[in-house]
């Protein structure tokens, strides 16, 4: 019985046929697939180009461990399901492909590109452990299940921009090289994912672009090696939305990570072990909580996170400090939130130049920009004590009107001079000269400085309470 006869009989019976490396003509298979039947072929060498462009096949197509001489063409075909596990082929052209079930290509070897845009796969696209020397094009695709590309190697970039995926996108332990035209290893800008986007231990030798992606579940970049090329970003999460973001790049990661205007519910990162070669943009990032993973033993302190922000963040925006303080408050870490806001005010005043920095230094030392009001009382008591001690030693002062002056009291005189809005009648009753006058002016200046800083701090406190 000829090979064609055996293939035809197995096809019509719907049984599996192992050709043990024998060849079969691609044109013969293409004609056969347009007849009623079920193709389940293994270990075949397919000569010529298997062209199913525009075909409508209402039975599963299984071509496992097959070697294709030419590209497999499925443009605008309508198939029930496709299985190409362990196949070797020069390329796959499947633009506009429609599959009612799953598209599986586990352990495939593809010498060129996989084109599947804009494909519609009602089930799952699974390319685990495959090696694709070119690019995988899944732009604008609609996938009802997930896109599973674990332990795979993609030589020239994975493209998912604008796709709609109902389940998870899983790139765990995969390696992606950069596309020649964009420099991106993974381009998923504008993607919508109904599940999570997982990339544990991903190695990306180029930009990972998730600009504007909407992920209903979590985005996880745990131990991911992110390498920006030629001054490009390593990771773009601009305007990305997700329920949770785990961002823990591997130590060897390099390049800038942008979180500008991203919105996440929970943010899990590791500022203590942040890669030395990575900068991060936080402008406009919003999150509800900063949390740890369940397996984490040690947490981070506000001081450690502030040090991380000072060393690794780009830009001079103050919003990231407000966001951090708000998250700490939600977690009941009020003292650490105040610590963050003090740093924020310090930076804000430094940005105003030398005079602003000087005034900020005064407010910082005296009342901690209003976040440490107890300091004002301590300074007040210290100035009163020093002034009282001086005037007790040097006094009494000369009376302005000897017949009308009150009894000399160095304490009441010091309080009257120090507090601008308090009038005890002592400061106007005595006339200091020489060193006494210098001390009086110094106490008076200290009073105005303390009063001004307290008012400024109270204003900030009122504004915080109204927010």
Automatic annotation (TrEMBL):
Keywords in alphabetical order: Membrane, Transmembrane, Transmembrane helix
Keyword Transmembrane in annotation: yes
Spans traversing the lipid bilayer: 376-393, 438-462
Protein name per UniProt: Membrane-associated oxidoreductase
């Amino acid at each position: 019985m000829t090979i064609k006869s055996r293939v035809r009989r197995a096809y019509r019976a719907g049984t599996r046929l192992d050709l043990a490396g024998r060849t079969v003509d691609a044109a013969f298979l293409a004609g056969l697939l347009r007849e009623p039947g079920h193709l389940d072929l293994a270990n075949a060498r397919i000569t010529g180009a298997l062209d199913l462009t525009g075909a409508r096949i209402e039975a599963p197509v299984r071509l496992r461990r097959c070697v294709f001489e030419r590209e497999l063409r499925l443009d605008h075909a309508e198939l029930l399901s496709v299985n190409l596990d362990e196949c070797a082929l020069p390329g796959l052209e499947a633009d506009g492909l429609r599959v009612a079930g799953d598209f599986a290509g586990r352990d495939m070897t593809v010498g060129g590109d996989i084109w599947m845009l804009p494909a519609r796969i009602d089930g799952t696209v699974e390319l685990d452990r495959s090696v694709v020397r070119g690019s995988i094009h899944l732009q604008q695709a609609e996938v009802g299940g997930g896109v599973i590309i674990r332990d795979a190697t993609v030589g020239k970039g994975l493209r998912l921009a604008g796709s709609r995926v109902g389940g998870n996108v899983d790139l765990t332990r995969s390696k992606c090289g950069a596309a020649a035209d964009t420099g991106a290893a993974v381009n998923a800008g504008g993607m919508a994912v109904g599940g999570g986007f997982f990339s544990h231990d991903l190695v990306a030798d180029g930009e990972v672009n998730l600009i504007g992606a909407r992920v209903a579940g979590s985005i996880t970049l745990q131990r991911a090696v992110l390498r920006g090329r030629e001054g490009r970003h390593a990771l773009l999460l601009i305007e990305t939305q997700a329920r949770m973001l785990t961002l823990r790049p591997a130590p060897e990661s390099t390049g800038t990570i942008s979180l500008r205007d991203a919105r996440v519910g929970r943010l899990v990162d590791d500022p203590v072990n942040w890669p030395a070669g990575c900068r991060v943009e936080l402008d406009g990032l919003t999150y509800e909580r900063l949390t740890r993973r369940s397996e984490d033993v040690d947490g981070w302190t506000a001081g450690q996170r502030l040090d991380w922000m000072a060393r690794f963040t780009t830009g001079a925006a103050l919003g990231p400090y407000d966001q951090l303080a708000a998250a700490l408050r939600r977690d009941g870490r009020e003292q650490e939130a105040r610590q963050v806001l003090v740093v924020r005010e310090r930076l804000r005043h430094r940005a105003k130049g030398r005079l602003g920095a000087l005034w900020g230094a005064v407010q910082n030392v005296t009342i901690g920009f209003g976040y440490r009001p107890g300091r004002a009382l301590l300074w007040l008591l210290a100035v009163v004590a020093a002034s009282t001690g001086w005037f007790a030693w040097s006094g009494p002062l000369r009376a302005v009107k000897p017949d009308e002056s009150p009894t000399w009291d160095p304490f009441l005189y010091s309080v009257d001079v120090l507090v601008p809005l308090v009038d005890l009648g002592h400061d106007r009753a005595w006339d200091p000269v020489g060193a006494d006058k210098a001390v009086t002016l110094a106490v008076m200046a200290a009073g105005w400085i303390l009063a001004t800083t307290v008012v400024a701090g109270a204003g900030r406190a009122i504004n915080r309470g109204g927010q």
